[in-house]
Each structure stands twice: as C-alpha cells, then as structure tokens.
TrEMBL record, chains A, B:
InterPro entries: HypE, PurM-like_C_dom, PurM-like_C_sf, PurM-like_N, PurM-like_N_sf. It comes from Frankia canadensis. This is Carbamoyl phosphate phosphatase, hydrogenase 3 maturation protein. Residues 1-16 have a biased composition (Basic and acidic residues). It comes from the Bacteria.
Amino acid sequence: MSDIDERPHAPTDPRLVRAGQDGSSAADPAEWTCPVPLADSAAVLMGHGGGGAMSAELVEQLFLPAFRSRDGETPVELADAAVLELCGSRIAFTTDSFVVRPLFFPGGSIGDLAVNGTVNDLAMVGARPWCLSTAFILEEGTDLAELRRVADALGTAARAAGVRLVTGDTKVVDAGHGDGIYVNTTGLGLVPDGVDYRPGRAGPGDVVIVSGEIGAHGVAVLSCREGLEFDTAVRSDTRPLHGLVAAMGRAGGDIHALRDPTRGGLAATLNEIARDASVGVDVRERDIPIAGPVADACSILGLDPFAIANEGVLVAMVAAEDADRVLDAMHAHPDGRDAAPIGEVTANNPGVVAARTGLGGERVIDLPTGTELPRIC
Amino acid sequence: MSDIDERPHAPTDPRLVRAGQDGSSAADPAEWTCPVPLADSAAVLMGHGGGGAMSAELVEQLFLPAFRSRDGETPVELADAAVLELCGSRIAFTTDSFVVRPLFFPGGSIGDLAVNGTVNDLAMVGARPWCLSTAFILEEGTDLAELRRVADALGTAARAAGVRLVTGDTKVVDAGHGDGIYVNTTGLGLVPDGVDYRPGRAGPGDVVIVSGEIGAHGVAVLSCREGLEFDTAVRSDTRPLHGLVAAMGRAGGDIHALRDPTRGGLAATLNEIARDASVGVDVRERDIPIAGPVADACSILGLDPFAIANEGVLVAMVAAEDADRVLDAMHAHPDGRDAAPIGEVTANNPGVVAARTGLGGERVIDLPTGTELPRIC
C-alpha cells in the first residue's frame, strides 16, 4: 500500500485536474469531508449516513430504543441481514436505499449498486439470493430516458445475479425535494443448512482474508463526481459476491464471519467485527491489495483507502487451519483472484484494530467517525 | 354522499380559510392538481406517483420491460403484495416508500403510515404480518428531535400491529436534496392455508363491500398541509387492517378479492379490479359511507372523494351468498363497524366502473389519471 497522509491536503499533483470548462480549476477537498461530529448535535449531519461511528450512534441511541418490540427487546439486526426461521428454513432479509451521485459512474450505476449491494448483504450471512423488491423515489422533472437507463441497468444486474424482482413501488416528490432517482431494494435469501456466518463468531487465531483490491468504488465515484481525471481510469468494483461465497463454502473450511466493507470501508468493517466478537484484529498494511491507480488517487486526494467504500470485495474471518483451502477456492473463482490473507484475529486488545505499517511501525485503525465521501452508494 | 362537482373550483365557502398570518388569503386549488398527463412526456410528472393511469403507464411501459426475468418473464407482481412459496408456506412480500408532507397530521404521522401501509398491503393478500424492514433517507439538517418523534411513532405503530422491525438502513442526502425524512418499509407476512384473495378472482354477482367511511386520510393531510380549517376536524383513518381481515376470514365466507384504496382512492381500486378480473363494477353512490365533514370538505375544495387516498379502509369482493355473514363479522369488529355493501360485480361492460348517482342517473368512474393530492402517503 502507498504511504498515505492521514489528513486531506490540496491536490497539487499534475496528474489531477478538474474537468471544468477550461480544465484548470482546482478541486476543493473541503467539499468531500464531513464536519466534525457533535455528539449533542441537534440535526442530522452528512456523517450520520457514513457507516461509521456517527451512524452507529444514530442506530443505537435513536432507532433501537424506538424500535423495541412488545416485550421490550430491541431485535433490530445489526449484521448485514436479519436471519428469520420459517418451517425449518432460514430466510435472510435485508434492506438498503441507494442515493449515490452521480447515477452513472465508471464501472456501474445506481441500478447495479441497488442489486449488488443488497445481494451482497444477503451473501454475507451465507444466503443464496432469492428475490428483491424495488422502491423508487423520483423527483418531478427527472428525465424519463434516464429513469429507463437506471431501470434497465437494475434489471440487467438482477438477471446477472439470478435474483427475481417481484414487487415494487414508485413515489414522486416535487422538484427540489429529491435528487433525480433514489431507489430502495429489499432482499430475501435462503441460508443453506450448516451455514452460520456471523461477526460474533470471529475468534482468536482466525485468518483475516480480503477477496480483492480495495478502494476502487469510492475513487471511481469521487473522480466522476468531481470531474477528476487520472492517468488510468478507476472503475467501480460493483459486483454480486454470492457466487464467490458459495465457492468458499464448498471448500469445506470453517468460515466464521463474512462482511462486505461498503460505507466506512475496511476500517469500519474490521472495527465492527472486533467490537461484536470482542477480539483484536491485527492487519499488515503491505499485504492489503490495492490497485496502483487507486493508491495514487488516494495519495493525491489525501483519502485513507481503508475508509473508502467498496462494492465488490468481502472480508472473511476463517479458522487458521482452513485458511489455505478457502484461499485456494477464492483464487479459483473470478471474483476472488486477488484474494489475500491480510492479518489475524487476536485475543489482545479486544475491540481494537491495529495495522503494521510498511515501515514496521504499528498504528490503530479507528472506526471512521463520519464520512469522507458522502452519497457513495 | 354529497353531490360533488367533478372539476376543482375556487373555494369560496366561508367555512374554509387558509391559516396564514392574517388567516385571510385564499387557497389555490391549482396547487393540488397535477398537470394534464402527456403520454409522450419526457420527464417524470407528479402524476406518475398518483396511483392512477400515469402510474400504471410507468410500471407497464418502463419498469416491467426492464425488470423481466432471465427467461423473459415479467414477474413483477401488480397486486398489493407478491406471494412466494417456500417449503409449503406462502410468504407475502411488499414494499412501500413514504414521502407524505407534512410528517405529522391529524390522526397520524409518516411513522404510522410506514407501518400501517405496508401491514395493509400484506393483509390484502390475506397474510398475517410478520416483520418489517425500515430504510430512512434523511436530509442533512433535519431536526434530530423530529426524527426521534417519527421513529417513536413508527415503533409504537409496529408494536400496536404486532410486527417486528428486524433490519434497517439509513442514508443521508445533502440539504436541498430531500425533504426531511423519507422512509421505506418492506414487509413479510404469512398467508394462512386456504386463503386466496386476488383481484382476478372477483366475479359477476359478487357483492362489493367497503369497510368504512372513505376520504378521511386525504382530507386530513390536505387540510393540515394547506392550513385549512373546517368546523369539524378531520383525522386520518390510518390503522392496521389485518385484524379485520382475519375476522372476515373466520366468518367462513368466500372472499374473492381485497384491496385497500390508498393512492387513487376507491376509483383507482375499483378500476384495477375491473381490469384485472375483466368484470364490470356497479356501485350506488348513496350507499358509500362518507363522514359529513369529509363530504363537506370535498364539496368545498372540488375534490372527488372517490379519488382520495384512504389508509384504514378496505374494499372486499365477496360471493353473494356469503356477503351477509362477512358483513356481520365486519360490523362486530372495531375497524369494520361502518362496513356497507356498495354495489355488485357484473358481467356487463368488463373493465368499466359505473356509479348510480343520488339523482338516479348513471356515470362512469374513470381510473384517475394523475393525482389530485400529491405526496399523500
């Protein structure tokens, strides 16, 4: 991994331009960062949607107490999907809204994300995706041709992933009260017998595996949104991961936990697993796969690739004795060719994620607070 | 039912005031109507969200072709909920986004609608509601205290309806690209053995029953939004209807079809059933229950109560020989006390809904085109 500054700095690298009318105006990193969070803020901040500490605070302090069940439980599932039992079957159930801007970006669109994001949340509990609902909130005045392109992309992604679109809803809000197209997908999947992937099952000794190069989605959307151009175009990694997960399962090893590091990136995902399983996580920065252009872009823009959203990568916690066979199965699958072991789960420092840097030092990887890149999915 | 003009007219009735600073400025009905639809419109219009002909056109011409399955089917369910088979069980699955403005109105809030609307879509296929997902799209700057009130209302409504909130999502959009709080709920329910309520099962001879007084929700939201005041306050009828549906089922009669006339009102619902079952529907205007203050408000505002959204009323098509026992069961239930037979299904004029007026004439009730009241749910 490249040497990354931890604070945004002005992009002065000549490879970086903003594609304005004259191609010369500088990008302003201040536009990409979230204000410092206020625990006592009286209003919703962008960071509340970032998938980090502020998001967690909103869920834990506002939604969970309000959503307790009749018997006082707060049964809202904090994993990627809830798993419900019905007549001996286990049904995975998960919801996501997509508000990415722009609607189309290198490598994908809001339609792809709406399918793959929800399919992947199902896959992370080991479920085979079954069907999706789609719910659109359209802004008055949105170009119907653009809506058609989004719907076509969504349908194409669903066919590619093998999920059926079985029910839907459309609402329209007056101009100025939306942003073209928002879409929610809610997914149902079936969890095969014997599969039990949960963050809480991660345990000391587990090998931490990442399935591919990180950071591509965030950099692709940001560079498109801001009109930045790099020597090498970066494309979103959006893709469905249930095929890879099934291949990993067939390898026969004991997979304890799976997560896809979307909002908040690898940093948020590893911290959440460390918290949920009360374990430490030690990773080696130099072993984390990242494409050169993505590393360069992060370096230029002052972004931490650990905190950037991915849409086609998973993190697995696998029993040490089974790690090699699971890795072999991943390498044999087209969506896991770049899979790599990046660290271990430890009993030391429960709840803490630590990274050994390229220079041999060690640093703590914190749960991101707000969001560096709002509306990334 | 009151004698209702079919076109909006200026509200000159002295009972109607706009509660402005001086309480004197007149309401402008033009604000409540949708522009005439253009089949070749290049952009999304408010009417595309109205639940009438424009909504149907968008679904049939844009979404269904895009969402066809791998084998070319267009399996998107046009009933209130899709019904899926799993290991001998039938699972109902439905989604709805809620964008009502204002968030709180007499008799309810967006939190109540988000639960009851989805619970009722499950109930209309005869399902017992099981659990819901919740997905919020929040606008940056939204008052957290208001969000808490909405979450509390949603949780309270879920406990009242006996459904669990099991998984969720929160996104934040930048100020100016939302409208405070949008919420999607997606619901799962279980359809009991032997239950088969589908619009297509309505047949000639069926008695058309409405479970209560119509029009209250639309008038309540509109009067709150526009600051109108009437002699008697009108409250939304939002409520979960699965208890009433279960009571109707226990009566043992052959219920063919159930629908809740939300967006597009009774007019849209009856037209959809007439179309789906290729039958005619004849109703008697004077038998349709409507509260005096709602009828008065509609008369003053030039609104057609047939086309106004309801949130706590259902329409049932019941075999003639069983209508009395189903009606008795409805009258014995708190949510069906005002139930009334309002007409019959006929073999004449398939696809046409006709109303016998109070004066003995007959008129066709068309599928509403766009929407008289945008953002009503």
